[in-house]
Amino acid sequence: MDKGMRIAINTGGGDAPGLNAVIKAVVMGADSRNWEVYGIKNGYAGLLNTDEMFRLTPAMVHDICSLGGTILGTTNKGNPFKMPITNLAGETEIRDVSDKVMDNFKRLRFDCLIAVGGDGSLEIAYDFFKKGMPVIGVPKTIDNDIRATVITFGFDTAVNIATEAIDRLHSTAKSHDRVMVVEVMGRNAGWIALHSGVSGSANVILIPEIPFDIDKICDHVSELELQGHHYAIVVVAEGAVPLGGRVIDKGNGEVGRQHVVLGGVGEYVAKEIARKTGKDTRSLVLGHLQRGGSPTTFDRLMGLRFGAAAVRMAEEKKFGTMVALNPPVVTAIPLSDVIGNIKRVPTDIDTIKTAREIGISFGD
Predict the structure, then answer these.
(1) I need a surface site. Which of 6, 231, 311, 353 has the fewest CB within 10 A?
(2) Eight-state DSSP code of residue 337
């Protein structure tokens, strides 16, 4: 058993329910081995400005599992390899400050960084591993789009929140004979839209993996009307794409962001349905509601399992790997096998077949 091992932990990218459970498991697992754990605040910012770093103790984490968000803070604009820096002229430049991060990591005598994040954050972790940093990744995203793991924590909570919202919309849509279009998160993968849409008895589900034809959506809504079903629920993933078109984004051009800011496809679909069918149609964007609040039991347990597994992997010096769920076990997967290609929804899976068989349209 290694005595005196010093572990750093950070959380990057978008927040997800279950992050605090990971932090608790890492701290408690390390403490049982007489190791020290230091929290790196706001992604990698704490390794650039070490005043943003602090010692984590069991007393600080004993009751944080039920809390949403992350006690360490997070960011999706803090890539040290492409860091936006404002010069004296007030201009923003992109610089590589990764060497400073490496220097601080070594100076502080850390033995391992446990990097908790999504595809962008894990790619940064892998880049640091290639520079010589001992890294272990923990997959985190509500989008469930990370390869090599069956599921990521945060997804179950996001789906539950989206499903509850869809359930509530049925009554108001029926009362007004309206079409309600609900835009959910998921980036370029349709997992949240698919699971919440099927579970919430949506009439139409639009996902990035199946480009949609707006005319076929309108035909489906009109057919429901002829059958005496005077309202409809349409669930749209934020990355859904019209047939022959492109993804709709907010186009705000923020410097240094890991990803394009998606949004607006729900409003587009709603306007087109209203124009083509004459139906009273409204759109709703769930947005960050899907990230907030207490994690579900599943996400708490998954976070704890992932955090504890990361400590075991540090003890075994399995650096350059990521914790992954391969039921019934949690295992180590090389980061090189994970980054660069997201896990999208296969269009022939049982859930999509089931949806089609119960009358749900995918706009194709």
Answers:
(1) 353
(2) G
Whether residue 270 is found in the same domain as residue 184: yes
Task: Provide the domain count of the chain.
Answer: 2
Letter for the amino acid at 251? G
| pLDDT per residue rounded down to tens, the chain (364 residues) | 445 799 999 999 889 999 999 999 999 999 999 999 999 998 888 888 888 899 999 999 999 999 999 999 988 777 999 988 877 777 888 899 999 999 999 999 999 999 999 988 999 999 999 999 999 999 999 999 999 999 999 999 999 999 999 999 999 999 999 999 999 999 899 999 999 999 999 999 999 999 999 999 999 999 999 999 999 999 999 999 998 877 777 655 454 455 566 778 999 999 999 999 999 999 999 988 888 889 999 999 999 999 999 999 999 999 999 999 999 999 999 999 999 889 999 999 999 999 999 999 999 9
Range of the domain at 170: 158-291+346-357
Residues 244 and 256 in one domain: yes
CB 286 within 8 A of CB 234: no
259: domain CATH number?
Answer: 3.40.50.460
Q: How far apart are the first and last CA of the chain?
A: 57
Residues acting as catalytic residues? 143
Is there a single domain that holds both residue 19 and residue 133? yes
Residue 93 belongs to some domain of the structure: yes
User: Residue 193 has what DSSP assignment?
Assistant: H
Q: Kindly state whether residues 163 and 285 are assigned to the same domain.
A: yes
Whether 22 contacts 306, CB under 8 Å? yes
Strands 6-11 and 321-326, by their bridges, are unpaired
Cβ count within 10 A of residue 352:
21
Nearest to 22 by CA among 121, 131, 97: 121
Q: 205 with 351, same domain?
A: yes
CATH of the domain at 325: 3.40.50.450
Give bridge partners of residue 48 from the DSSP assignment. none
Q: Do residues 287 and 298 both lie within one domain? A: no
